[in-house]
Amino acid sequence: MTKPPSSRVHQERPPQAGFLGRFGWRGFHRFLDGLDARLEFGVIEAVLPGGHFRIIGGHAPGPVARIELRRWRALLRLARSGSVGWYVAWEKGEWASPDPVALFELFMLNRSSLGNLGRPSGLSRLSRRIFHWMRRNNRPGARRNIIAHYDLGNDFYSSWLDETMSYSSAIFAESVTQQEPLESAQQRKVATLINRLDLRPGSDILEIGCGWGYLSRYCAGLGHRVTAITLSPSQCAWAEQTARAEGETVSYRICDYRDISGQFDAIASVEMVEAVGQAYWPTYLDVIARSLKPDGRAAIQFIAIDDAIFDSYAGNVDFIQTFVFPGGMLLSERRFRKLAEERGLRWENPQHFPLHYAETLRRWRDRFDDAERSGRLPAEFDSRFQGLWRYYLMYCEGGFRSGGITVGQVTLVKEGTGNAEMDIGTGIDAYGCQRTDIC
After folding, report:
1. Full strand arrangement of the beta sheet holding 345-352
2. CA-CA to 197 of 20 to 30 Å: which in 26, 32, 275, 301?
């Protein structure tokens, strides 16, 4: 891809740029010059305030993102508050795009060359870090954070998730196509994860973060004994009711993973570790190590960000952590693997499928839009919330399409250690949770 020199930028002052444009026009163009120099892949075709056109990037092939920058203030928000400010600018109508996914993909694709351009700094960064720390995932914080996201209501999630109520990446056929139903791809994801556990008939299985219960019911249908935990009362109630209707026996519990005791033949956990937080990764892995019988296996589906930018990511607070998922933190796979291996958990057969998540998110957005058009979204979710959720789905899709964010499955194998001690405490039921936490 080459940049057309004649249409690169109109340098004359725009006649209608508002207060900020009149007094800061040259500064805004310097910001765009910096963006142009750092954008290694892809191109932004931008209509600037006042109607002028500018090409940004175009140095090497990549996504083509089209944007209408309606107010210069959007760039101020981006410079001061990063992805948080960029969302606020979108919500206020200060920029628009026919396909924001391409823009998000382009930004993440250029993650190394862009560096801290567009990341929050100064007081904005400090205040958001303090706010994020206040939402950390200690026991009371974890429950608040999970409820804030997952207890938006079963009616809300069921209006746009597929019939399995799976809120995690599906695995499509080898070639991701639009023909395969989402439900069958979600079923394949669960079957793939369970195959990692090498189960014997009648195994005792623990699911950490059971969602609405599809995986746990799948395992129960194979004849296994399943304990499934969540911190979401709404999810627990749905899962228990559905299992009863389908004739499956699953022990559902509202229980923090740190309160599990006893040991299991296998553990499954699908996209739960992103809700743990970096400070609690060692604790999460300690729980898995002590809760597995010798030679037991854990199968985990996880979301990770490029290790090369993890420190920068972890040192800031992004759009999702601020507006969608308080306390969330994507993995550094290298760091997480090291912690697992230090606990005697062998890291086996990691497999990644980011484009499958991108397709899953695209399907969810289509279903969400259909639910909105047909009036199936609960009435309490107004147009502002609907816009936030649509932006969230597009933001995530762009990240997975870029390869800067990935999703994967891995098997953790506990090395045989002979006789293991059972951790049985006062008030713990046969499945390892406090009896008072029964859903």
Report:
1. 251-254, 225-230, 204-208, 264-270, 292-305, 405-414, 345-352
2. 275
What does the block give as tokens for 139? Answer: 């026991």
The model carries a pTM of 0.88
Long-range contacts made by residues 366-369, C-beta under 8 angstroms, separation at least 24?
367/160, 367/161, 367/162, 367/182, 368/159, 368/160, 368/393
Residue 396 annotated in active site: yes
**Pick from 107, 113, 109, 112: which is nearest to 82 by CA?**
107
Same domain, residue pair 113 and 143: no
Residue 319 region, left (φ>0) first, then alpha (ψ -120 to 50), else beta? alpha
Q: Give the pLDDT band (50/70/90) at residue 427.
A: very low
Calculate the alpha carbon distances from 43 to 2, 52, 68, 148 in Å: 9, 17, 14, 37
Residue 18 has pLDDT above 80, yes or no: no
Question: What is the residue range of 177's domain?
Answer: 139-352+402-437
List the catalytic residue out of 255, 396, 433, 439: 396
Residue 81 forms part of a structural domain? yes
